[in-house]
């Protein structure tokens, strides 16, 4: 009995250790940094609105559901919007960060996994949405 408990714990540890962290680990990531004519707080709010409208509040094929979280940057690092599948919270599919460029502009970086719908077209949709302050969802993206 005791041996099976240890074997079970070892298997769980291995599985947890193998969980992908998405954009933080992938070699296929696609990234773009661009300027936005607003302060970084507004750019960050726009990023959150984009992921909510275009991914979280949308009915996706195969009942896939997405969620997002706001991660506060530590020690001068920018705040982040992290998008992930509800069933895989450790695997970040899209990462959007905003930081001050000048008092009236911000620098936004969008990073996507580089697989499936998480590609350059996704970055273009996020960029257009954040720059215009109007969510413009990518056409035909199912996930």
UniProtKB/TrEMBL annotation:
Superkingdom of this protein's organism: Bacteria
NCBIfam families, per the entry: lipo_BPTD_2524
Organism for this UniProt entry: Achromobacter agilis
PROSITE patterns, A to Z: PROKAR_LIPOPROTEIN
Protein name (record): Lipoprotein
């Amino acid at each position: 009995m005791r041996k099976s408990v240890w074997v079970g714990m070892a298997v769980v540890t291995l599985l947890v250790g193998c969980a992908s962290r998405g954009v933080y680990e992938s070699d296929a990531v696609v990234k773009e940094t661009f300027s936005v004519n607003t302060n970084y707080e507004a750019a960050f709010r726009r990023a959150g609105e984009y992921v909510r409208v275009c991914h979280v509040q949308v009915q996706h094929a195969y009942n896939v559901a997405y969620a997002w979280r706001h991660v506060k940057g530590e020690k001068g690092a920018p705040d982040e919007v992290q998008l992930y599948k509800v069933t895989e919270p450790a695997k970040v599919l899209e990462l959007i960060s905003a930081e001050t460029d000048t008092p009236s502009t911000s620098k936004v970086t969008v990073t996507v996994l580089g697989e499936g719908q998480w590609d350059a077209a996704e970055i273009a949709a996020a960029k257009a949405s954040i720059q215009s302050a109007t969510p413009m969802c990518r056409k035909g993206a199912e996930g």
